[in-house]
Structure formats: C-alpha cells, structure tokens
Design a protein that fits this description.
Length: 124
C-alpha cells in the first residue's frame, strides 16, 4: 500500500493533526493526553509569539485513506543566526507502530528542503 504524505494546509487538516494521538492511543490506559487547546495554541502562528522568529511545517501521512502518522518541523531562525548553523527540529512525531516504514518516502533531506520554504499555519 502506498503512503501519501500531505502538508497540513487548512484548519480541517490541523484538527486532524491534533486529534491523531487521541485515536492512536484511545485504548491505552497509560496514555495521558495533552490538552488540545494547548496544542492548538502552541502551533498556531497567530497565538504563539515564538513564530516571530520561527517557521513550522506540519505533515500527515495517509495509508489507505486513513492517517498513519504525523510530524512537525520547526526552524528557529534566531537560533540559526546566533549559532551560524542551519538546523531544524522535528517534534510531535507519532506513527502507528505497524506502519513505521511507511514514512520513509519523506527523507530528512526532503523535510529540510520543505522547511526551507515553510511558514507556520495561519488559521482564523
């Protein structure tokens, strides 16, 4: 089965990105969920002041029409200017265990290239 990697482009995708771990871990009695409002605030450029110097990109991986994983990439331009390096962080990575290999189509190089032109989500 082919896995399709899509950028989070609108509010509906963003909600799916936030909701994914709730469906992934719904039967795990040890899972302690993050507050959805906190995730929305952290990743929303209009609310989080960190986006004055950072850019972010969010991706969802789909397999058979169902979300198989998610990942967020962040570039902190102020940190990169200070250190003289070109670095990015990848966070909020979650993949259905049996589907780990399906995210390989998006290599680290592709992630970095995508992030070099990214902007944070802007939702009204």
């Amino acid at each position: 089965m082919t896995v399709i990697i899509r950028y989070v482009q609108n509010k509906s995708d963003f909600k799916k990105f936030v909701q994914f771990p709730f469906s992934l871990y719904r039967k795990n009695p040890y899972w302690v969920p993050l507050l959805k409002k906190e995730i929305f605030s952290t990743l929303n450029q209009n609310i989080n002041p960190a986006f004055e110097t950072c850019d972010a990109e969010l991706w969802l991986a789909y397999k058979s029409g169902r979300i198989a994983g998610r990942i967020a990439g962040i570039i902190n331009h102020r940190h990169n200017d200070y250190t003289g390096r070109k670095q990015a962080r990848f966070i909020l990575s979650m993949i259905r265990t049996c589907q780990r290999n399906y995210l390989k189509p998006l290599s680290n190089g592709q992630k970095i290239m995508a992030l070099s032109h990214c902007t944070a989500p802007r939702f009204q």
